[in-house]
Design goal:
It is built from 10 helices and 4 strands. By secondary structure, it is mainly alpha-helical.
Length: about 400
């Protein structure tokens, strides 16, 4: 799938992957921060509960202090801590009930505390105050107050209230400890998420960059090698198109160039082989070559037409000579016979026509000097251009001359 994407698509895919990872990290961090904020809110709530619990205990102590002070002195001023404690107790009790409204266990403890408070106030605190007032009016004696204090009446309720407050604070402390542990875990999780996520994003970005670079450089390298081979005249190689991006299109274009150049070379080779074999009428199909390549083939075909026309023109000139003329190669094999010589060979039955004669040894003419030192070519090699022989009852003379190419060879 990655290879089928355009280069721009691969880059976009890489950016999207990294951004998606960053968004995931941001999402997890946001969630954890929200959870930590919620945990901190509940921690603050627990601290408020503990503060109100401390306020309740302080109120109870103030009530107890005020009651004992009044019992000892009988001064109304000694009741100030008691009165303040009663007001504070009601205030803190109402507040702590509101704070723990969602906690049934704490509500049960607070109800138990309120009941103990009422029992303590009505069974211990208020009777002690009333007794001291009776003493002040002379109805009771001071010994009665001392005896009441020594009896520790109401201690059970006071200890019970302290115990209830202890349970309440212990429960809140446990919740506070659990939330702090949870918050610490979330902080650690968030920290590792940021560290590992950043590292993973960096590695992912590097991996995608490597993949994109590799998917570009390898095909481009293959295209460059192919272009160098074509420039050097080597079209005999295989270039595979493995991707569908812009590089793949470039590979396809180079493949087309390779195919067109190879087709041009094939037709040029075919025309060359045909010319060597004497098939001068052979032509290449220019229509199978696109654009300028077709023009090249058409130009070669036109050049061959001119050459062939000239060849036929010179052949006609030689055929128009009334004397027999024949041409051999260095191996003394015929390469050309003019019409008069062809007529003689055909009449004697030595060849069917001059095309049939090409490639045959000139001794096929069966003259009496053939295959001897008096052969015309043998004589020419020693500097003698004229040779005489008998052939078919006739006394003949042959003039032999070399045929040279443009280089004089």
């Amino acid at each position: 799938m990655f290879k089928k994407l355009k280069i721009g698509g691969r880059l976009r895919l890489g950016f999207v992957a990294v951004i998606a990872l960053m968004l995931l990290m941001a999402g997890v961090t946001f969630v954890n921060l929200g959870r930590m904020e919620e945990s901190n809110r509940w921690n603050t709530h627990s601290y408020q509960v503990l503060q109100e619990s401390g306020g309740l205990l302080l109120a109870l102590v103030n009530i107890e202090t005020g009651q004992r002070g009044y019992s000892l002195t009988g001064a109304e001023a000694s009741l100030e801590p008691l009165n303040a404690g009663k007001t504070a107790f009601e205030k803190h009790l109402e507040k702590i009930r509101s704070l723990t409204a969602d906690n049934a266990k704490q509500q049960e403890r607070l109800q138990k505390l309120a009941e103990s408070y009422q029992r303590w106030m009505s069974g211990a605190v208020e009777p002690a105050i009333q007794l001291r007032r009776d003493i002040a009016r002379g109805v009771q004696r001071m010994d009665a107050a001392v005896a009441l204090e020594q009896s520790a009446k109401g201690k059970h309720d006071m200890d019970g209230m302290r115990s209830v407050l202890g349970e309440l604070e212990s429960a809140e402390s446990e919740l506070l400890t659990a939330r702090q542990a949870e918050a610490m875990g979330m902080r650690t999780e968030t920290r590792w998420m940021l560290v590992l996520g950043s590292l993973l994003a960096m590695l992912l970005g590097m991996a995608i960059a490597w993949l994109v670079a590799r998917s570009i450089t390898a095909p481009v390298g293959a295209v460059v090698d192919a272009a160098k081979k074509i420039a050097a005249g080597d079209c005999d190689f295989e270039l595979k198109r493995e991707v569908a991006d812009e590089i793949g299109e470039l590979v396809g274009a180079v493949q087309a160039v390779q195919s067109n150049v190879r087709a041009l070379i094939d037709d040029a080779t075919m025309l060359s082989d045909a010319a060597v074999a004497g098939r001068f009428e052979t032509r290449a199909d220019a229509a199978r070559h696109p654009g300028e390549f077709g023009k090249i083939v058409s130009g070669v075909n036109a050049t061959l037409d001119v050459v062939v026309d000239k060849l036929e023109w010179y052949r006609s000139i030689i055929d128009a000579v009334p004397f027999p003329i024949h041409v051999t190669d260095l191996d003394m094999k015929w390469t050309f016979l003019n019409k008069p010589f062809e007529k003689l060979m055909v009449e004697q039955g030595y060849v069917r026509d001059r095309q049939d004669a090409v490639g045959r040894p000139c001794s096929t003419a069966n003259a009496n000097i053939c295959k001897t030192k008096n052969c015309g070519i043998a004589q020419l090699r020693v500097g003698v251009k004229e040779s005489f022989f008998d052939w078919c009852g006739m006394n003949c003379k042959q003039d032999t001359a070399p045929v040279l190419n443009a280089k004089g060879e």
